[in-house]
Each structure stands twice: as C-alpha cells, then as structure tokens.
C-alpha cells in the first residue's frame, strides 16, 4: 500500500475523502512530528494505526477510529505503543485487562486514576481522586447512576442532556465533562477494541470570572463568617486559605511533614502548575495549624467520616452567602496590593508560576518573606475590622 503524505491537522484529516475502493494510507509529511502514526482511509472509516519496524519485523497495531480518537490522543497512543514495540520483551503489548470484558464507568474511572498508560501524564493524588469521584457521584446522571453503566452505553445525547440540565452550574458541568473525557481518552489507550468517546464535540461552558459576593470597597465579612464555622478542621482550612491565598485543593492535601511551625514555613510538594514551593506563614496562618487536633498520621485536614482522605470541598459561608473558597485568593491578592507588595511577590505567595514578564521569570526563587505575609495579614484584619494583634488568641481559643 503506497503511503501518501499530508500535514496532519484536525481540519485536513476531516476533509480527507473516503476511498471508492480499497484503502488509502496517509502519514504526516513533517519529519519526526508523528513518527510511526498512520491513518488508513477506507470506504466508510478512517482508522489510526501504528506501523513500526522492530526485531526484524514490521509491527502493525490498530489504535482507534477518527473522529472518536482525535489526533492528540492518537499521537499519544502511538508514542506509548512505539516504546513497547521497541522493547525486546514486548512483541505487541498485552492489554492491561481483558479487553472483551464489559466495564462500567466506575471501573474505567479507577483505571484512569490508578493506571498511567502515558508516563507523561500526572499521577493523581488521593485528594484529586476523591474530588473527581465526588463530582461523578453528584453529577454523572441522577445520584451518580452513570457510574454503574457500561461505558459503551453512555451516549453523546446523555452527555448533552446533562450539560443542559447543569446550565445554572457551568463550572461543575465543565469539570464533569473534562473528567469523563479524560476517562475515555485513557480507555482508548488501554483497549484493543474501538470505543466511541461520547464527549467528542460536546461543548463545555466558557469560564466565568466570578465577582465577590459582597462589596469589597467596604468591610470584609470573611473573618467573621469563617469563625462561625463549628468544625475546627474546616475552620482552620478556611483560615489558612484566607491568610495564604493558596488554592483550596493544595490546602486540603497538606501533610504534617510539609509543616515547620517552629520556622513558620509550609512546603507544597506539587502545586497545580507542577512546581514545589516553600511558603512563609503569617502568625494567623501558623495559629490555624497549631489549633488543629492531629486526627491522622499524615493528613492535616483529614476527613472525620472517610478514613484516609482530606476534608471535602467547602460550601460558601454565610446566610446570605458571603464567601466561597476561591474568594480567599481574591482577598489575599487584594490585600497584597493594598499593602504595596510587588505583584510578582503576591503571585509567588499564592502559588502561581507566572511571576512577571521577560526571560528572568524562570530565575526567580524565594522572593517573598515573612514580612510580606505579615503585611498582608494586617490588611486582611483591617478590612475585616479585626485587631491583628488579637488574631492569634482568637484563633487558638475559639
């Protein structure tokens, strides 16, 4: 079969005409861009294949069908299979599990979160797994009923209907879509047979910039709302978020080994952006950690109802609602600006990787100090009409 060369793009692949007879084979015309990846276009289907010469033989492996398997996923699958075929211990890799066995969404989710087929993907933390599972239980059909449905029976119509039903919760709808899409992408890499991705071409909701639930030009009700939280673990987590600006997902996954309360330092092994960073803690933030009972050997903010997992995502506080978890990052950033702290320092302190403009960004390390977080803490206290000098005592005795 003669191979024709084109530039692989989503548009060019979509426009390739089906063959009137036989099969036409295509490869990318750019050297080294998509090695060993071929597209066979037949009378009715377009099929991705891995074709590689190894151990004196040409190995051919079906990867999936276009458009259910898009170019990005096909390239990842080809890379993974190429490495296995090149290994002398593998002729063609055996499936991770029997591919003929029908599995439901729950089982596919477990494979997605425990079996990294592509080594370049991030290993899922326990906190992430629990967060994803909670989203599926709450939104994957009524009361998470999709979890027990075979994955080849979940249709695009079902996904679209759920997106429409969640139009008043666009962020959760988008998150659900991304989780299910990731599960199916993983299945395409694992399975020998072909599976359709029901999330293909389903539109997510655009991200929205959320305004604060109160007027930030006046008094901030944040501290008062947090101190009304009865559970000491949840209350301390809120206080840490307020006085550090760190994302709630990172705060909830903190372990005791990450803390040095003698030096007032917190280390996050891996932030959302993949970096490790050590943060200076203000006195209120340290007090919030010291106030906590140690109910788990590793986790600082451990769930009391589910062993070995962090506390769940916290709902907005106040009646009416005045504070959401992500709002604490807004308030921390605003307080930093009011305190006159350099923009790059504030971004560093709240865990962002983008510190400024220009080539010097990658060379900035440890640019913020305790005096910066103390200044921010003073502003937060002032805006919340609270005495900063009394914060530690209030936190430790409440």
From TrEMBL:
Domain of life: Bacteria
Keyword terms of this UniProt record: DNA integration, DNA recombination, DNA-binding
Residue span, Tyr recombinase domain: 207-378
UniProt key word DNA-binding: yes
Any Pfam family the entry gives: Phage_integrase
Keyword DNA-binding: yes
PROSITE patterns reported in the protein's UniProt record: TYR_RECOMBINASE
Family note: Belongs to the 'phage' integrase family.
Protein name: Tyr recombinase domain-containing protein
